[in-house]
Amino acid sequence: MKFTKKSLLLGIAALGALTVAGSANATLANAKSYAKVVSNTKLTTPSTLRNVNFTGGSALYTKAGTLKGAKKVANQSTLMSLANSNISQNNVRAYQVAKTNRGSVYYKVVTFNGQYRGWIYGGKSVSSFAGGLTNYTTFDNQFLSTLTTAQQNATYKIANPGVTNDGKTVTYKEPAWTQYKVGRAITDSSPYANSQFKIDKVGTRTREKDQWVHIVDTTNANSPANGWILFSGLTPTSTPVAPVADNAIRINLVDPSNNSTVVKTFDYVRNGAAKGSQFGSFTNNAWTIPSSDQSAIEAKIRSELSGTNYNLSSLSSSQVAQIAQATFGGSVNIAVNKTAAIADNAVRINLLKPDGTFLKSTDWVKNGATKGKNVGSSVSNSTLWTLDSNDQSSITNQINSALSNSGYSLANNTLTAAQVDTIARGSFGGSVDVYVVAVQKASTTIVPKSAAIGDPFNQTTLQGTTETYSTANASVPTFGQPNNFNSKDLVAQKASDSTSLVARLNTVDAADRAAKVDLVNKALYNAAATQYNSTGVKLDGFTGPSGQDFNAVDLLTYLYTNGLGSLKTPQFVQYVITNGVVTQKNDNVINFIFPVNLTGSKYGSPVNVVYNFNPYTSIVTK
Which of the pair, 150 or 505, is modelled with greater confidence? Predict the structure, then answer.
């Protein structure tokens, strides 16, 4: 089915000796302005060598484009869209060639569905396709070893016999739409409902990437039903199971609702492994397998499930345990996820981590879109495709929403030109893969503030200290010199020292003593209320995706989980009058508790948390 330069022969002695039928009437009226055809003939090379594809470099015309009266059938943009189509009905066959007096070659072509037919510039030589055309392989024949040994040895029946022309119900002389006007081998498979077939050929269609197999009746080598069919249209009747190698485990990927329905199976080999030994190990009360094996097995699972209605993004801890407990020479069943069908007017965007691991998918729907149509369009003089601006905005927003709180995002929360190109080339009813990046983490610093109960607007930013006693100064201007105190210094004073504060308070007139003590206590209390004991307190551990919003519940959960539901001041001094004598009490502490009116913010930005405390109450007498 591949085109080669040497095979494009016209089957005639000399191209220049031919003339167009009725060439006398084809003489151009104005030879100076228009070319004229000097030869025109049907191509006689094997049809399989004349499958071509558009390059987008030339438009399609009703006749050679330089001839008088030539009208455009399809522009370059339309042809480029056909060239990138994922539907084989848009394959193209060249069947006639003409040459003008200017040395240009034009080919007459037709799409397999007959929608587009016309002439297109093909270069200057009939020995190869050029200009607006290039040779094209419509079907990739593969080695039978593409299938597993079990699949090669199995016998099959047609799963749903009938007359439907869907690639899965009847057989075809060639895989559907891979050769021009080569159709079905049979139009009704009902008479062959009980026939058993073996697979002798396999391959994939270039555009759809779907797997086709050629089947032969096991009892009738000349059965009319022998032909090509989608592998998904068969059901096994017997599956000889090849033995598992002594140094391998067989992993059966099964339907989640039916453990006996095997979707795919493969053997995973470890060189040097001994039959009967376990694949993994049991350490720290858990089954584990080497990370290199896990990555390789996950990649193999994704590869095996590609093109099916199943997927498995990564192995769960329980699935890892299942594989770890499997023994070499044996097998293990792993349930995979069944995926929903993609709507005809939707494209499924698979979001992949940087290492290619599947993260999640989202289906973007466009009203009025039809199955098989490209999501975007090609651009003149550019190798990259583009999206409609409104579509691009909608797709970007949907992807960002799908990635919210996943730990991953689009780079700078927007699609790159390459990602736009990938999505634009995708088709409705199909899927595309878009790689995302890990979101950078940011720490949100919690700023503790204090406010006395009943006075919520008079807030003070709390200062952390690891000192046992408060180091915040209390000022009492009316008491005398010195008039600045802090609890740390007061505790260090000796009560017997005549200059100590407790001694000085005891020298105050008895009538004024209670008032002075209360004044000092209040000043020390309010000074202590500006500090918190920061020993073991971590205020910068609240992290999340940089720039992403968090709400009050997220913050509240972090505070309670990390012991930040309350704070305490360091110890501070208060004075008590007992029977007229002032004594010093050192172990006073204020407990802070935060109110419920927390607010959200963005990770990476500081956030205020207000802690309440009871206002000062006189405790001078006892």
Answer: 505
Walk me through the domains of the chain, giving residue ranges and CATH numbers: 5-137 (no CATH), 140-238 (2.30.30.170), 248-338 (no CATH), 346-439 (no CATH), 443-613 (no CATH)
- 579 exposed, middle or buried (CB, 10 Å; 0-12, 13-18, 19+)? exposed
Distance in angstroms (rounded) separating the CA atoms of residues 95 and 207: 22
pLDDT digits (tens, 9 = 90+) for 331-365: 999 999 888 778 889 998 989 888 777 788 899 99
Backbone torsion region of residue 284, taken as left when φ is above 0, otherwise alpha when ψ lies between -120 and 50, otherwise beta: left
- Contact between 378 and 77 under an 8 Å Cβ cutoff? The reply is yes
pTM: 0.40
Distance of alpha carbon 187 from alpha carbon 171, whole angstroms: 8
pLDDT digits (tens, 9 = 90+) for 36-56: 999 999 998 888 889 999 999
The tally of CA atoms less than 13 A away on the side-chain side of residue 85 is 23
Rounded distance between C-alpha atoms, residue 441 and residue 252, angstroms: 38
Q: Is the preceding peptide bond at 482 cis, omega within 30 degrees of 0?
A: yes
Residue pair 56/118 in contact (Cβ under 8 Å)? The answer is: no
Per the CB < 8 A criterion, the answer to whether 359 and 436 are in contact is yes
In DSSP notation, 203-227 reads EEETTT--EEEEEEESS-TT-TT-E
> For residue 254, which of 245, 265, 242, 262 has the smallest C-alpha distance?
262
